[in-house]
Amino acid sequence: MSDAGHTPGGGDVAERDVYTGAGEPAPSPSSVHERQELVGRDLRTEELVLNIGPQHPATHGVLRVVIKTDGEFVRELEPHVGNLHRCAEKIGESVPYYQWLPYVDRMDYLAAMCNEHVAAMAIEKLGGVEVPERAEYCRVIIAEVQRILSHLMAIGVYGLDLGAFTPFLHQFRERERGMDLLDHISGGRLLYHYIQIGGVKRDFSREWLDELDAWLASVERRLPEYNTLLLNNRVFQQRTAHIGLINEETAKRWGVTGPGLRAAGVDWDLRRDVPYSVYDRFEFEVPCGESGIAGELGDCFNRHWIRVREVEESLKIIRQALAQMPEGPTMAKMPKSFKAPKGEIYVRGENPRGELGVYIVSDGKPTAYRIRCRGPSFSNIAVITEVARGTMIADLVALIGSQDIVLGEVDR
Amino acid sequence: MPDAPQPGAAVNPWDDDPELRQNVILTKIDWVKDWGRRHALWPMAFGLACCAMEMMATAATKYDLDRFGAGVFRASPRQSDLMIVAGTVTHKMAPRVRRLWDQMPDPKYSIAMGACTVGGGPYVKYGYHVVQGVDQVIPVDIYLPGCPPRPEALIDAIRKLQFRILERGGNTLPEDETGVGAA
Amino acid sequence: MADAPEEPETPASNADPVTERALGVLETEHADSVVASEMTGAHPWIQVKAEGLADLMRTLRDHDDTQLDCCHLITGVDYPGKGKDVGEIEVLYHLCSYAKREDAAYFKRAEKNDPWVAIKVRVPRDAPNVPTVMEVWTGADWHERETYDLVGVRFTGRPDLRRILLPEDWPGHPLRKDWETPASYHGIPIIAPEDL
Ligand code: SF4
Question: N or C: which terminal CB in chain C sees fewer CB atoms within 10 Å?
Answer without folding.
Answer: C
